[in-house]
Amino acid sequence: MRGPGSPTTQWRVFGVVWALVAVIAVISSGEIARRDARASAGGQAATASALHAAVLRSELERHRSLPMVLAQDPDLEALLRRPDAPGAARLNRKFEALAKEVRAAAIYALDSDGRTLAASNWRLPTSFVGSSYRFRPYYYEAMRDGQASFFALGTVSGRPGLYLSRRVDDPSGRPLGVIVAKVEFDALEADWRASGEPTYVTDADGVVVITTVPAWRFHTARPLSADLRRRLAATQTAGSTIPTPLPFEADGSGLVRVSTDIPQGLYAAASDPIPEIGWRLNLLAPSGDAIDRAVAVARWLSALTVALLAALTGILLRRRQRAAARASEDEQARVELERQIDLRTAELRSANDQLNHEIDERRRLETVRQDLQDELIQANKLATLGQIAAGVAHEINQPVAAIRTHADSASVLLRRDDSDGALRSLANIDRLTERVGVITDELRAFSRKTRSETVAVSVDGAIDGALLLVGGRLREKGITLERRRAPAGLAVRAERNRLEQVVLNLLQNAIEALDGIADPLITLGVQVRGKRVTIHVTDNGPGVTPAVQQRLFTPFTTDKADGLGLGLVISRDIVAAFGGELVLEPTSTGARFTIRLAKAS
Amino acid sequence: MSFEALNRIALIDDDDSFRDALAERLELEGLTVLAFGSAEAALKVVNDRFEGVVATDLRMPGMDGRQLVERLNDLDPDLPVVMMTGHGDIAEAVDAMKRGAYDFLAKPFAPERLIETLGRALEKRALVLDNRRLAALAADD
Question: Model pTM?
Fold first, then answer.
């Protein structure tokens, strides 16, 4: 298997890698989203804070000028200089109208001892008139510094508010008293509360003075020092309660986790200073949900993205694996094919070698067979010669006997001086010698071992040769030969010597078959039919029994006492080698062997 | 040798060349040769009063020498028949002798030997014929 590991391993790596990527992506995208959401929440908080601060500042600005303007009021100076009832009543009404107009909680005037001479709430049971506020910082700080501002719970109303005060001097600069305006921020707090963002304002000491969360009022943003604690108690800033720290810590910006008083969660904190009176506005923009949502969305998106990418790469991996598998299969198929081809080639080569070997072996065997055949043919020839030897001897004996007689006659004639007669005898001797020579030549030629190509062979020539050798035997056996000669010049495709051998074999067989037969007859005929020539040897012997017919051409099958039974087998093979055939044909009496050969053109 | 009383020879051989050669040689000795190519042809001429002897080949197509000896022996037991045989036919020749052949010669033979044999046979035949004539005369008397 090629490539980086098996498909299973690849999928494992794929799974691990994508799981890691998913974890990293989800976490990091969450964190990025969180950071962005925080920044966004922080920005929103800062905007809201700045807005609230601006509103607060304009509110404060509006009220701050009130004591300053009132300090110039001659009625007030007159009353402070010389307190009397009508003056006080006039101011009470004046203050009452003014407070209503400027939406101040209370406007009232203190004499130099801090006792209230006139107040806008003179009609109410909670009227300040007659009450002394010399313990209040807005009194003594204003007496000392000319003006003061002080946020605290009202000692009578119990309502929180900002006390803005200004010292009222006579023209010589002697302090006459203090004019105080109490501003309450209920409406502002209600507006802010409606905006949904918890907001609180701390004074220079860190004490919460204005807040949308009442529970936080007069708690401190910072731990209280002992000194501050004493001062707050003395000034009854928070009434009888001692301020405690806020249940969270916020130092102006960043995120704050709040778990009490307001919906629990994470808030983006922003703050703006209110420098005119040393306050600071703090705003908490609820951001936990948004951040969580943003984080969750980012995580989902990143998870989805990772899932999509994973699916995409998964598909790619699958395709690649399939392609690799296909390539691998192709490669395997190619290797297998090459192996098969090699195998086949080797098999073919082996088969070729084997075939070559077999061909060589066949050739060798064929040569051996041919040699053996030649030997057999020769053996048959010699056997035939053995069988016909007596006949041949007789055939030679006749002319020899005649020669001897002629020679004797010649000598007698010479003695009688009959030279003509002697010459006649000698001529006879010469003729007879030639006859003997023909026979011996035929014998020599016949017994010669031959093998040659098939040529045109004279049919009569071959039959003459055979008869020359077997003629003596025919005579000896007293067999009549009926010969029907071939058309003059008829030739067949054969080998002279061997065709003669076949004819001789057939004649021999016929002679032997005729042993003991009365009036033995052999018929030797030649026929031409188209391109075929048939030579047949027929005898009037007992014929061939069906049993013998079946094994007639089988080697070593003979019913003769002498002989190997090869004559017909060899004859048939010889004729077959000429492209012809040797068959036993049915005939009414005796046996009829027919040689069929191709006529030579 | 002279053949004064009888000089007739019936010569039977299927081989023309040998028959002709032998006939010529016998005629050189003053014999009268009646040559036949077959036993059947000879039997048409030769009978019990034949004034001569027979010289025949043993092996012939048709009637062979032995059968001829038997026929002639039946015809005239005192007619000498000389057998002429080829090599290897001694057994048959002996058999022919038993059947009444006068003598036999194996081919090839010296013509003088045949002439001598035929001379003796003619002498015997002449005596037989003389004897028969005398016997006939005696019977007539």
Answer: 0.48
